[in-house]
């Protein structure tokens, strides 16, 4: 990839992985816009330019992309990081909440890609990096809508890879494992009183607390790996990052379903 400074747009950059990614690219000398709903345009306390951006709002997306193009004329890299999680039994989770997860994790990502494609196609260059998850290849109990949305991102990204390669646009997929981002603290819910899933979910939450706490990878480490991947000339499509993600995804690939399912059941004590 060019040694010249790139124009990089990172969604979901107010905290966690997104903030770390935007900071990492800025520290490497690139022009970075970090989008987030809680920021006013230009108001981020960061090393990059904060950009008011709600990926569930088409007008907000178009305004953000237009601003960057007005200021730089190009968007070299789009990193689709923004997302929300889900915790709870699928049976006891409202369809409205499931739609909310997909509106952000899937349709929001698609909305961003559609907004930057005209300029990338015109220039016949660009990189789109979609932040999926190890949960995009491994269904996680009590995080069904999150896993389903990330499975959808995986399929969408593969399709885009085929369609956009003719225009010189590279699509890559990042698959983080457990990262210490705070998303779990904002997602987890107490086990509902009288739930049929109380005992199983309580055991699951005990395990998940450890995975997302001291056993997780700092976002700064993940951000460095992601920047290395994006700024390289790699043609590889899938990129596991964070502790043990590559191992778990490799095991999912080679083990029969029954064997892998039993391992997940034992791990989460469900």
Task: Explain this structure.
The protein has a single domain, classed as NAD(P)-binding Rossmann-like Domain (Rossmann fold, 3-Layer(aba) Sandwich). Helices cover 49% and strands 13% of the residues. The protein is built from nine helices and seven strands, in the order E-H-E-E-H-E-H-E-H-E-H-H-H-E-H-H. It has helices spanning 16-27, 58-72, 95-123, 144-164, 183-187, 198-211, 219-231, 245-254, 257-268, and strands at 7-10, 31-36, 49-52, 77-80, 126-131, 169-176, 238-241. The longest helix has 29 residues, at 95-123.
Short description:
The protein is α/β, with parallel strands linked by helices. It has helices at residues 16-27, 58-72, 95-123, 144-164, 183-187, 198-211, 219-231, 245-254, 257-268, and strands spanning 7-10, 31-36, 49-52, 77-80, 126-131, 169-176, 238-241.
Question: Could you name the CATH topology?
Answer: Rossmann fold
CATH architecture tag: 3-Layer(aba) Sandwich
**SSE string, helices as H and strands as E:** EHEEHEHEHEHHHEHH
Can you give the helix content as a percent range? 40-55%
**Continuous helix count:** 9
Low-confidence stretches: none
Q: What shape does the CA trace take? A: globular
Residues in β-strands, percent: 5-15%
Major sheet characteristics: 7 strands, parallel
